[in-house]
Amino acid sequence: MEIFVLGTSGMMPLVNRHLTSVLVRRDGKMYLFDCGEGTQIALRKADLGWKGIDSIFISHMHSDHLTGLPGLLMLSSQVDRTEPLHIYGPALLEEYIESSRRILDMFINYEIIFHAIEDKDVLFEDDEIAIRTFPLIHTKPCYAFSVTEKPRPGIFSVDKAVAFGVPKGPMWGRLQRGEDVMLENGSVVRSADVVGERRKGLKFTYVTDTMYFDEIANFAFESDILMIEGMFAHDLQDTAHQKKHMTAVEAAAVAKDSMSRDAYLMHYSPRYADSELRFLLKDARSVYDRMHLAKDGMSMIAKHED
Length: 306
Description:
Layout: E1 2-7, E2 21-26, E3 29-33, H1 39-45, E4 53-57, H2 69-78, E5 85-89, H3 92-103, E6 112-116, E7 122-125, E8 129-135, E9 143-149, H4 158-163, H5 170-176, E10 181-182, E11 188-189, H6 191-194, E12 203-207, H7 215-219, E13 225-229, H8 237-242, H9 248-257, E14 262-266, H10 277-285, E15 291-293, E16 299-301
Parallel strand pairs: 3-4, 4-5, 5-6, 12-13, 13-14, 14-15
Antiparallel strand pairs: 1-2, 1-16, 2-3, 7-8, 8-9, 9-12, 10-11
Helix pairs in contact: 9-10
């Protein structure tokens, strides 16, 4: 699972900091989370193709999280997209998209399928992953998202299979798929005899624009990569609470309580120049040493530990 940081700025873009946007690529499919101003530029810099974006998830109806969307939709027509594009977000997002298409006379030659996310938990699920959402506390309805792989099969033990007398070949494959097999002598070898317990899949969680509250950690529990807003330093805690945002210290508390393997701060206030982000990191690491600074153009790979 690859994560590409396309924008980390909150409220307004800076010269080297686009507005908030993160893309996840897994098994050739791409999922875009928020689409702030500058997302097209960031996608081009990262050499990511627009046609490959399967779904877009918009956290809430604030301009710094969605003003890049109309341009991205128009561009997708110019690169001859044919597959449907699924867009998930608050109910008002559909009106924003349709009014933009009408007023701007946008040429769209592919199907846009909108999904309102109110009162939903699982937004998408197939045999390999599930994408979930969770309501946050902000000045507008706002949602966190997670991408979680389904549990993987346990590790097949060749030594145990040989010890049970299972001949190498199709029976090994059946055992690995969870089926029991019968040998020529009539004895039955169970899959559980030669395959270990199912292994945890990878998890990515995206949390932005919210006040701190304990339940966020439950949603982000055991994330391999947690992208989380830390908009203000601890000395501006009152300002953060008035605006319903989190400080870097509070973001780190979520990361620690959720037992996330690695966590990245993002959605920085424009009051902090790039050189000043180290103060946010210092605050965060005073709580949890697995905190990092997300920077525009950064990418990381979430890997299985086994």
